[in-house]
């Protein structure tokens, strides 16, 4: 291991593929943003979604924002590595093209997905490392979801119900 303050993620050839998963609001984006900010050799494929952008989100940076029809076209073309319908009828998926672009960077690839996506990717990416984030307290998730101010009460309740189902899956 190098004698520096940098995180050592192993040899750079071939890069690691890490699937980062966890319930909504657990901090997946915060961790990834901090790793990038600190200069770790990681890249994150941009995911596709049919939900609208939240304040501050940029198309092609945070997600690829598409209509339901466009998403279905990508799905029919086999362009999505995985996909799921979550939270209020919105779809999320990982475009194969985003993973290819990430692989060309020679950096470690971190694919950020929900629990459904991680389960799907276990078959598609059997050599990937899978990391599931959980908060120290479940109550912190609800507080974070409410603090974002981007969902109404029904959407928050839907996310909280999904979190409980996700916990049930990982505790088995």
Number of strands: 8
Strand order of the largest sheet: 2-7-1-8
> What is the overall pLDDT average?
85
- Poorly predicted regions are none
The main β sheet shows up as:
4 strands, parallel
Helix content: 25-40%
Counting H and I runs of at least 4 residues, what is the number of helices?
Answer: 6
The sequence of SSEs as H and E is EHEEEHEEHEHEHH
Radius of gyration: 16 Å
Label the structural class: alpha/beta
Shape: globular
Could you characterize what this model shows?
38% of the residues lie in helices and 20% in strands. By secondary structure, it is α/β, with parallel strands linked by helices. The strands form 2 sheets. The chain has a 4-stranded parallel beta sheet with strand order 2-7-1-8, sandwiched between helices. The longest helix is centred in the C-terminal third of the chain and has 18 residues, at 153-170. The mean pLDDT is 85.
């Amino acid at each position: 291991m190098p004698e520096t303050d940098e995180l050592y993620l192993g040899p750079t050839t071939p890069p690691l593929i890490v699937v980062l998963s966890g319930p909504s609001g657990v901090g997946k984006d915060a961790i990834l943003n901090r790793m990038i900010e600190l200069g770790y050799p990681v890249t994150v494929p941009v995911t596709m979604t049919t939900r609208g952008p939240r304040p501050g989100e940029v198309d092609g940076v945070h997600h690829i924002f598409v209509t339901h029809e466009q998403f279905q076209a990508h799905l029919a073309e086999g362009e999505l590595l995985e996909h799921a319908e979550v939270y209020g009828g919105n779809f999320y998926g990982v475009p194969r093209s985003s993973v290819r672009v990430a692989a060309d960077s020679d950096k470690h690839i971190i694919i950020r997905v929900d629990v459904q996506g991680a389960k799907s990717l276990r078959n598609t990416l059997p050599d990937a490392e899978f990391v599931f984030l959980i908060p120290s307290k479940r109550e912190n998730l609800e507080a974070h979801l409410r603090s974002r101010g981007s969902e109404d009460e029904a959407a928050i309740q839907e996310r909280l119900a999904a979190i409980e189902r996700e916990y049930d899956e990982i505790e088995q």
